[in-house]
Amino acid sequence: MKLQVKHEKMLLAGQWIESDRSFEVYNPQNNQVIARVPKASESEMLLAIDKAHKAYQTMHAWPTHDRIRVLNKAAAYMEEHKERFAETIALEGSKTINEARGEVTRSIQTIRISAEEARRINGQTINFDQSEGSENRVGYSYRFPIGVVGAITPFNDPLNLVAHKVGPAIAAGNAVVVKPASVTPLSALLLAEAFMKAGLPAGILSVITGSGREIGETLITHPYVKMISFTGGVDAGERIAHQAGIKKVNMELGSNSPVIVLSDADFHDAVKSCVSGAFSAVGQNCIGVQRIYVEKDIYASFLEEFKARTKELRVGDKLDELTDMGPLINEKEAKRVEEWVDEAVQSGATLQAGGVRKGTFYDPTILTDVPNSCKIANEEIFGPVVLIYQVENVNEAVERANDVDYGLQAGVFTSDINKAYYTIQNLHVGGVMVNDSSDYRIDAMPFGGVKNSGLGREGVRSAVEAMTEEKVVSFRLQQQLL
């Protein structure tokens, strides 16, 4: 049966519009066209930014209770249409239907947490009399929205990573213009639908679909846009940082995430967690497990059990509930993963499992003995490949874990609290997950990294803070109070 191709519209300041041009969205599993989406022009992006600026000026005193109401109604709409959202994620992206359902659940939580954080945007009182000569001054600080936020989102979490930018922006009282990934724009448009159904004022949200090369720089450089929130690759992040100029920039740029497994750990639990962390979402996950450092006493047992669990994973149809792993986002990415693995094997690495590509599918792959000179040892693979190394002790594990240009999250498995604290204090990352893999995250926690893994922090509360500014108010009293 031939799938009917949907003709989608994009949201421009509260209006669903078409454009003079369109592009096709494909199901990466079979390269079938599933939708045609407007390909926005620079003039349409300029109009969206202008409308957002005017909406913000009109709504700059937007009451907190109204923002909370809109966010909660949007979350309720998503809950009501949960399966439709999940099917959209699975069709346009790489996730299995079960993984897509999990993403919808998290996205709903992200929007609901945003509603909760809207009521907690508080300032502080300031004791001015701590400074000599200021005894007759009192005051406080408060936070106010920055204006228009430009959001640029990737393909791997096409709903929740949009929610992580739109939810906090609205909670803080900003307007937001979203440029979603061109390969997965449908989930972002569905989220926009939820906000329109929730009664979001026109202009506060636009989702502009199209080529980043044609409209991305316009969004990044426009003076009305006061902040860029970007999730994506390092190269694109560097370009954005240079283009943005003097404005806020928040970036999550990926990683090459390490996990340390010490001999005192429950290695069965570590294997289970790391297999999931390495191969969920086809490894297309910024905190996915890529490097595992296992203490020598348990290395052989760990590797054998890891191989056995990996070989049990079922690769296939994304919409089949029994499938564990679907395709990569396109064949170009699958070929890149294949090339990186082949380079490592040719350089002396041992292929323990996987290493087979069929179109956009790539089998879950385990490598050992990977030389440090290989690209796969230093860069983010963003595919279903994990590297397992033997180490002498925790000191060596930490040193080798740090020996890359990334630092988003790390995992460590141990029952020794002193060793746990050693890793916490010495791993150069934005988060250390003790007795969990690097893949663990909840949407309320601060999330971000160091080095080439980005600037600033996401997570709803952190994003709300980034999307507001602090203003200090001081009153000089005309006479001392009696």
TrEMBL record:
Keywords tagged on the record: Oxidoreductase
Membrane-crossing residue ranges in chain numbering: none
SUPFAM superfamilies: ALDH-like
Gene3D superfamilies, per database record: Aldehyde Dehydrogenase, Chain A, domain 1, Aldehyde Dehydrogenase, Chain A, domain 2
Pfam family, one: Aldedh
Superkingdom as given in the UniProt entry: Bacteria
Catalytic activity: (2S)-3-sulfolactaldehyde + NAD(+) + H2O = (2S)-3-sulfolactate + NADH + 2 H(+)
Family assignment from sequence similarity: Belongs to the aldehyde dehydrogenase family.
PANTHER family per record: ALDEHYDE DEHYDROGENASE
Function: Part of the sulfo-TAL (or sulfo-SFT) pathway, a D-sulfoquinovose degradation pathway that produces sulfolactate (SL). Catalyzes the oxidation of 3-sulfolactaldehyde (SLA) to sulfolactate (SL).
Protein name (Swiss-Prot/TrEMBL): 3-sulfolactaldehyde dehydrogenase
Origin species: Aquibacillus koreensis
